[in-house]
Specification:
By secondary structure, this protein is mostly helical. It has one domain: STAS domain (Transcription Regulator spoIIAA). Strands 1-3-5 form a three-stranded parallel sheet. A two-stranded parallel ribbon has the order 2-4.
């Protein structure tokens, strides 16, 4: 684990703890396999969170496999969150997820000391 990874992990954990103590709903944990086989169930969680009035905060720390359907789900989630005037937060993205995003020209950057940013 690099120093940047460690800082990212600490920052993400602190942001999640602050949100929980403020009464915000916990982040939605993305499945290990963010693939066509489970995007419908995961998408239903996204819809429910937005309907409840919450931000779409996603914990991507368990994602070990992602396909085009999984990336499409994340992009659709971001689009819907913005349409509902909510934040879309993706944090603790695994190397596998970051690599898939990078292949598509998408990025996930968390500047040191700042909360997780939107998927760029």
């Amino acid at each position: 684990m690099t120093a940047a990874d460690l800082l990212h992990s600490i920052t993400s954990t602190a942001v999640a703890e602050a949100a929980r103590s403020a009464g915000a709903a916990p982040a939605i944990a993305l499945p290990a396999e963010l693939t066509i086989y489970n995007v419908a169930a995961t998408g239903a969680l996204f819809s429910a969170r937005l309907a409840e009035g919450g931000d779409l905060e996603l914990d991507a720390s368990a994602v070990a496999e992602v396909d085009a359907a999984g990336i499409q789900l994340l992009l659709a989630g971001r689009r819907h969150a913005r349409a509902w005037d909510r934040r879309f937060l993706l944090h603790d993205a695994t190397n596998e997820l970051q690599a898939a995003l990078s292949l598509l020209g998408l990025s996930f950057d968390v500047p040191p000391g700042n909360p997780p940013e939107d998927l760029q």
